[in-house]
Specification:
heterodimer, A: mainly alpha, B: alpha+beta, Cytochrome-c3 Hydrogenase, chain B, three-stranded antiparallel sheet, 14 helices
Chain lengths: 356, 367
């Protein structure tokens, strides 16, 4: 990444225009980069905040329709700006703090959670050329940065100085570390075939016919996809793997002592994480932005990602919750062996060239 | 291998907790997620129902006793009326008996539907809760149509019932039990074979037969432990001896059996209601009883089988218009006290499942 910045090599529009205008003013290259990246960061942040607000509303509507209710109906058409109102309410709320908290840890936990959730979008390919930075370690970067969520949840659990929160924090640490293994092993199947960690390369390798998508790479593609979805559900802390915040057992889990905007940060980060795991599934297994050319590439990406989100939401409103030991058994005794076997088989097939 | 030094810690589950269905409190000693000791604490919902009754006339007691077990308020006010009638030797008209049985069984179904929803929610599936309440609504509408109330009915009177059913009641009840019977298979389809549900309930919280009997456990919890004991059959009251129905029994005594048994009981209640609606005679709905009636001095214990187990009312009369002593027996008290007997090989999540399948309701613990 030296010389010309990788950003927006293919991206037309506002940021390219801004980049060229700034260069024309004679500013030093460093300042041009800083200003453009800041503008871009703000744009991504705004977009993701809107996505999170939309997902909260969508989840409420989906749960409502699964349960034969209406859900929010008052604010706008089918309550479309209900979550905007909720966000405003949360902004105004008093930040209730427990006296016995660990001040530093308590404060930074939601911040880290929030930042970790958003950082994944540096390498997320929203569409053809719509990527902030095409890092050559793309998927590895996402896996690494989203793991920070574990630390934040553990911090929240510890810093609250509450037994329920601590139990929730410990559960989330155990769960997310365990499910990280099958998650990465499932992702590696795709990486083996692409031969690159770059998100753009992964998508480009799936261009052309629908059968180039990695979910159709029989036999290991579908297996990797299923194991990925299972592990991702656990990574996103969603039912049937939502034990860190199991309401009926731990009241609210790690975020029990958080209120106001700090709670909102956890809450939004959770939905961003949901979107992240769905977007990775769409990119790795469902061909990313690839599709018929007459529909814009970013729309393909959104449709596939939201389809995955819908699937995960339906899981949540259908299944009961696993117990903590059953959850670990499932990860170590079933998912890990299956994903590793799948990985080895995929590697052998790749080596022998037995694939199309 | 070096053992990590670990510490036990104490968690207060309740009185304010989403899974305790009210204000029950459990003091849990935990070793990580494992439970070392369970200590139930009672007394957070004590409203002195029994004492309040002692300062009222018999007729005035009925609305108070409704609050004793609000999920099946019909059986509360029925149990009280039954005790008072036994005490004074009042003959209840036939039609009133039939109406009472219909209402009691409808209320049992409503209670079990609530159980289905709440248990599923405690084990993490939120959607069945809404499904359970949706069908319960049909029954609650029937009650509202009959007595104007949706929760605390006060429908029974000493010597009969407060008012006759409207003429739409019978077709609407047939319709409601038809829908509920059909929806039951939906419920079973959603959970019975679900591997997560089985992992969470099968073999969890086994209550052996001997322990159950020793602790005075009754109702579905007892029957799920393999004891065929139902007061409707073993000590028949009202007109239950006229109907053809089975007493479902299951033998494992775990959470799964307690859950299945209640679904079985809904089917049996539907059978009873169908027979009662077909055989409903005409005539009076209430015997002539003065509002200030004074039963002769004496004492009586009447017991009925409600949706949770044995509900008993013990009355002592001194010949005045107010009872000298009222004692209500709620099955939840015994179910709550048996909790430590489930052993220590449990996790926090199991306690929630056990608590839910015991179907404990807190006002029954603290009269």
């Amino acid at each position: 990444m030296t010389g010309k910045p990788v950003l927006f090599i293919e991206l037309y529009g506002l940021f390219h225009w801004l980049y060229e205008k700034l260069q024309a003013t004679g500013l030093s290259q460093a300042w041009v980069n800083i200003i453009t990246y800041t503008a871009l960061g703000l744009a991504i942040f705004t977009l993701l905040a809107l996505v999170a607000l939309f997902l909260v509303w969508w989840e409420r509507k989906i749960s409502a329709h699964v349960q034969q209710r209406f859900g929010p109906m008052r604010h706008g058409w089918h309550g479309w700006y209900q979550t905007v109102m909720d966000a405003i309410k949360l902004l105004q709320k008093e930040d209730i703090l427990v006296d016995t908290r660990d001040r530093l840890v308590f404060f930074w936990a939601p911040v880290i959670c929030f930042v970790a959730a958003f950082s994944a979008y540096v390498v997320m390919p929203w569409g053809k050329g719509l990527i902030v930075a095409d890092l050559n370690i793309g998927i590895l970067y996402i896996m690494a940065i989203t793991t920070f969520t574990v630390i934040s949840l553990l911090m929240a659990g510890w810093g609250s100085n509450n037994k329920y929160a601590l139990l929730g924090g410990m559960r989330s640490a155990a769960q997310m570390v365990s499910y990280e293994v099958p998650l990465v092993a499932s992702v590696l199947v795709v990486v083996i075939f692409v031969g690159s960690l770059s998100m753009v390369d992964i998508v480009k390798a799936q261009s052309g016919l629908v059968f180039n998508w990695y979910i159709f790479r029989i036999p290991f593609g579908p297996i990797a996809f299923l194991t990925y979805v299972t592990a991702a559900t656990a990574e996103a802390n969603r039912t049937p793997f939502d034990i860190p915040e199991a309401e009926q057992e731990l009241v609210a889990g790690y975020n029990i002592e958080y209120s106001g905007m700090k709670f909102a940060m956890f809450f939004l980060a959770e939905f961003i994480n949901l979107f992240t795991v769905s977007a990775i599934a769409a990119t790795l297994f469902l061909g990313g932005w690839n599709g018929w050319a007459f529909i814009p590439s970013w729309l393909w990406f959104l449709v596939k990602t939201l389809g995955m989100v819908l699937l995960l939401m339906l899981f949540r409103w259908t299944y009961p919750r696993l117990r903590v030991d059953q959850l670990m058994e499932f990860a170590w005794k079933f998912l890990v062996p299956v994903t590793f076997a799948n990985l080895i088989v995929a590697g052998v097939f790749r080596y022998l060239g037995w694939y199309w | 291998m070096v053992e990590l030094p670990t510490e036990e810690f104490v968690v207060n589950m309740g009185p304010q907790h989403p899974a305790t269905h009210g204000v029950a409190r459990l003091i849990l000693t935990l070793d990580g997620e494992k439970i070392v000791k369970i200590e139930p604490v009672i007394g957070y919902l004590h409203r002195a129902i029994e004492k309040v009754c002692e300062n009222r006339t018999y007729a005035q007691c009925i609305p108070i006793i409704d609050r004793f077990e609000y999920v099946t308020a019909m059986s509360c006010n029925y149990a009280f009326s039954l005790a008072a009638e036994k005490l004074a030797g009042i003959e209840v008209p036939e039609r009133a008996e039939y109406l009472r049985v219909i209402m009691l069984e409808l209320n049992r179904i409503a209670s079990h539907l609530l159980f289905y929803g709440v248990t599923a929610m405690d084990i993490g599936a939120v959607t069945p809760f809404l499904y359970g309440l949706r069908e319960r609504e049909l029954i609650v509408d029937l009650f509202e149509m009959t007595c104007g109330q949706r929760l605390t009915y006060s429908y029974n009177r000493i010597g009969g019932v407060s008012r006759d059913i409207p003429k739409e009641f019978i077709p609407q009840t047939h319709e409601a039990i038809k829908i509920i019977g059909a929806k039951l298979s939906d419920y079973e389809g959603l959970l019975n074979e679900n591997p997560i549900w089985l992992a969470r309930t099968r073999g969890i919280g086994v209550l052996p037969k001997e322990t159950a009997i020793a602790y005075g456990v009754s109702g579905p919890v007892l029957r799920a432990s393999g004891v065929q004991y139902d007061i409707r059959r073993n000590d028949p009251y009202s007109i239950y001896d006229r109907f053809d129905f089975d007493i479902p029994v299951r033998y494992h005594g775990d959470c799964y059996d307690r859950y299945l048994l209640r679904l079985d009981e809904i089917r049996q209640s539907i059978r009873i209601i169908t027979q009662a609606l077909d055989g409903l005679p005409g005539g009076e709905i209430r015997a002539k009883v003065s509002p200030n009636f004074k039963p002769p001095p004496g004492e009586v214990y009447s017991r009925i089988e409600n949706s949770r187990g044995e509900m008993g009312i013990y009355l002592v009369s001194d010949g005045t218009k107010k009872p000298l002593r009222v004692k209500a027996r709620g099955s939840s008290y015994n179910h709550f006290e048996v909790l430590p007997q489930f052993g220590t090989n449990l996790l926090v999540a199991d306690i929630v499942a056990i608590f839910a399948t015991l179907d404990i309701i807190v006002p029954e613990i603290d009269r």
